[in-house]
Design the sequence.
């Protein structure tokens, strides 16, 4: 779909918008590169000079302190200059068009936009209209795509599980509204996971989920979790109750919340993941979120290394080699 | 009206209403058709047009096109869009009332018609607003709208407050002798959707519009038609199930008809590609099975008309994240070639295809156009069925360039358009021009 937009003429990754159309080798390379950056972030001096002189703009049309912070840290550890532009309280509320906002910041001679936007397709639109030397990195667009989150989740899974081909993965919750779920499903299928399941009531699943997304659909959590190696819980937004998707948080937790008893249905060495921020007692019990199977906080720290890998790949992709730990 | 006497010679005359499909001359005098076939006694042509190799057919009747004036002249004007109509071989237009001010009073309807008359490129008729301000609550002054020349009323894409308003509007419109046009759309099911609720929308994470947004509305209207006997025309159907419901109602003898927009006969949800805003339309492009059913219903006559659903936009309207872009396609100039494409693909024969663009739509609204019979207004379209042309600047007349076909080549090109015997469009240095 977006192959032509994501790659330049010589087949080099120019933008990072979606995992759709990205080959398995590239995803593996991202994880391998992230592995080398992970050791950087564990050292006393956490910086590498890979992107010295480059300017990365965090263009957030939707507030997210957490995601913005990890992108900011990732860019700074690559020695890039970082500019944070919070549009939710800035230009577009004064009536400036999205394209004008882009043009203005572009004129400041920047190298990369990290874009978060509430509407599906926003990152594609921006990538289709920026000057040729600028790369766009999608930090989440509407319900469509959140490819860096999916890659950090894959990285986390690989660190714990190694080979994907024997893994059964269950994604539980509001798949309909989730860009994270869409990107994770693409990533898992590209990496050859044995089985990708989604577990949710029908109101929280997209039409024809099986065919359109390539997943097995479950409406019963116990069945959906049976024997799985990885559980990914999705955040449930409060507005799903007012939108008549669900009757109450209580009933949702009763049927689809992850508790210790339910966790017992999965494989004994199952890992539990969540893109955050978590709603304790809504989609996940605190004992599970803080329990021995949970890798939720590792996801957060892995996020920095994975975003460093993707940023360096996109901005320096034509140059051979990744010095990684060399300071 | 032209007093000139014109003889159109050597053309293949296709007049679906009379069943004519033959190389015969057409004679025009005093802005009307004088004869098809044999030269009237004493007819001396002031001008002869050689239409060898061309098709001569009734001027096309487009029953849903927006001109954008008054109120949205940055998108299009009566002048620019009627000129585009002429370039598309369209001689009669029926326009929805969602102008600014809204055409819910005779004054606005008269204003548009008089400006169109002054422009002189096409006959323009207005669908009156069914409710005041299109707000869906109180009835518009339908008798006054009828007296101002409206043949139909509609609430266009705007919702009605409830089924009772719809029922009353249908009954009152029938009392006035107006056709009710419904663009079936249940707003609660559409919600914030912007694409077909299907595989592509699910993958792109774009909010979907289920088929039931259309079928629930169709079912409601059909139940009211059954009870009241009022004639209703469904505009721009998009789904297989909806045309099936209309077909069943017609079999049962209910006075319902339907049209589809030309691009829905060609494009599906796959046109969304990488968030192509030119594929943002309402109702949305649906699945392949829906497109097939629309084509079959068109061939069978359940769908009696193809319209352009022309909605010209300024460039900025399509420059945003997909859900924030405005919906609609500028399509008048593509109406004929894309309909001919259906014939070429074997969905229906040429005469039937042209019927859906001429007498078909005209008959739904009782308009005295769309046929080449002696005494009728000399509204004609002459086209070259074999000419291939590229959709690009230079050819294009509409102010809106918002079409998924921009840059593509299409077959079938209008050579000349006549309204009341007057040549209002002529493409390039054609044979016709030499007349």
Sequence:
């Amino acid at each position: 779909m977006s192959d032509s937009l994501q790659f330049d003429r010589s087949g080099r990754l120019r933008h990072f918008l979606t995992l759709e159309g990205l080959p398995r080798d590239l995803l593996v390379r991202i994880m391998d590169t992230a592995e080398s950056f992970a050791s950087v972030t564990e050292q006393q001096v956490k910086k590498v000079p890979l992107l010295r002189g480059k300017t990365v703009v965090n263009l957030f049309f939707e507030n997210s302190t957490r995601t913005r912070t990890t992108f900011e840290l990732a860019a700074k550890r690559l020695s890039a200059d970082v500019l944070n532009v919070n549009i939710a309280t800035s230009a577009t509320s004064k009536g400036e068009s999205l394209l004008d906002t882009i043009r203005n910041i572009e004129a400041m001679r920047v190298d990369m936009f990290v874009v978060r936007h509430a509407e599906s397709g926003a990152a594609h639109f921006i990538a289709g209209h920026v000057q040729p030397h600028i790369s766009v990195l999608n930090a989440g667009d509407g319900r469509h795509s959140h490819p860096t989150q999916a890659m950090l989740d894959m990285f986390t899974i690989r660190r714990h599980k190694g080979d994907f081909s024997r893994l059964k993965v269950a994604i539980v919750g509001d798949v309909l509204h989730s860009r994270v779920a869409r990107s994770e499903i693409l990533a898992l299928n590209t990496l050859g996971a044995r089985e990708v399941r989604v577990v949710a009531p029908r109101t929280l699943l997209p039409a024809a989920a099986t065919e359109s997304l390539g997943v097995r659909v479950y409406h019963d959590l116990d069945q959906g979790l049976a024997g799985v190696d990885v559980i990914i819980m999705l955040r449930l937004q409060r507005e799903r109750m007012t939108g008549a998707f669900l009757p109450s948080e209580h009933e949702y937790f009763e049927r689809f919340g992850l508790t210790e008893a339910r966790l017992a249905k999965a494989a004994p060495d199952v890992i539990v993941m969540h893109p955050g921020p978590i709603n304790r007692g809504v989609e996940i019990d605190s004992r599970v979120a803080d329990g021995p199977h949970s890798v939720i906080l590792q996801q957060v720290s892995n996020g920095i290394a994975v975003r460093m890998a993707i940023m360096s790949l996109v901005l320096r992709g034509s140059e051979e080699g990744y010095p990684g730990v060399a300071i | 009206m032209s007093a000139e006497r014109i003889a159109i010679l050597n053309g293949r005359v296709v007049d679906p209403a009379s069943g004519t499909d033959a190389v015969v001359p057409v004679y025009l005098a005093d802005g009307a058709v004088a004869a098809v076939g044999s030269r009237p006694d004493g007819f001396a042509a002031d001008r002869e047009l050689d239409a060898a190799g061309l098709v001569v057919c009734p001027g096309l009747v487009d029953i849903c096109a927006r001109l954008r004036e008054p109120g949205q002249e940055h998108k299009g004007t009566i002048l620019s869009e009627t000129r585009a109509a002429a370039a598309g071989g369209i001689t009669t237009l029926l326009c929805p009332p969602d102008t600014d001010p809204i055409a819910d009073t005779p004054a606005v309807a008269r204003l548009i018609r008089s400006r169109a008359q002054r422009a002189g490129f096409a006959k323009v008729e207005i669908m009156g607003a069914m409710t005041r301000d299109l707000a869906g609550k109180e009835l518009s002054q339908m008798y006054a709208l009828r007296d101002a020349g409206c043949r139909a009323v509609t609430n266009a894409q705007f919702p009605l407050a409830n089924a009772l308003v719809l029922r009353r509007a249908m009954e009152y419109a029938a009392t006035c002798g107006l056709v009710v046009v419904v663009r079936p759309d249940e707003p609660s099911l559409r919600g914030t959707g912007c694409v077909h609720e299907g595989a592509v929308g699910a993958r792109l994470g774009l909010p979907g519009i289920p088929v039931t947004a259309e079928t629930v509305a169709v079912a409601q209207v059909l139940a009211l038609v059954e009870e009241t006997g009022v004639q209703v025309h469904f505009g721009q159907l998009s789904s297989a199930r909806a045309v099936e419901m209309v077909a069943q109602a017609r079999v049962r003898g209910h006075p319902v008809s339907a049209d589809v927009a030309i691009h829905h006969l060609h494009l599906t949800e796959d046109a969304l590609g990488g968030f192509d805003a030119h594929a943002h339309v309402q109702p949305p492009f649906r699945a392949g099975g829906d497109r097939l059913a629309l084509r079959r219903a068109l061939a069978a006559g359940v769908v009696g008309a193809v319209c352009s659903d022309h909605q010209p936009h300024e460039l900025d309207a399509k420059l945003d994240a997909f859900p924030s872009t405005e919906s609609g396609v500028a399509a008048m100039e593509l109406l004929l070639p894309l309909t001919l494409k259906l014939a070429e693909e074997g969905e229906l024969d040429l005469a039937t295809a042209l019927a859906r663009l001429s007498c078909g739509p005209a008959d739904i609204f009782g308009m005295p156009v769309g046929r080449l019979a002696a005494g009728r207004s000399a509204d004609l379209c002459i086209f070259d069925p074999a000419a291939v042309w590229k959709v690009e600047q230079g050819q294009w007349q509409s102010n809106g360039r918002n079409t998924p076909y921009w840059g593509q080549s299409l077959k079938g090109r209008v050579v000349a358009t006549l309204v009341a015997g007057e040549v209002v469009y002529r493409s390039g240095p054609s044979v016709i021009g030499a007349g």
User: Anything to note?
Assistant: Confidence is low (pLDDT under 50) at residues 318-327 of chain A. The longest strand of chain A covers residues 135-141.
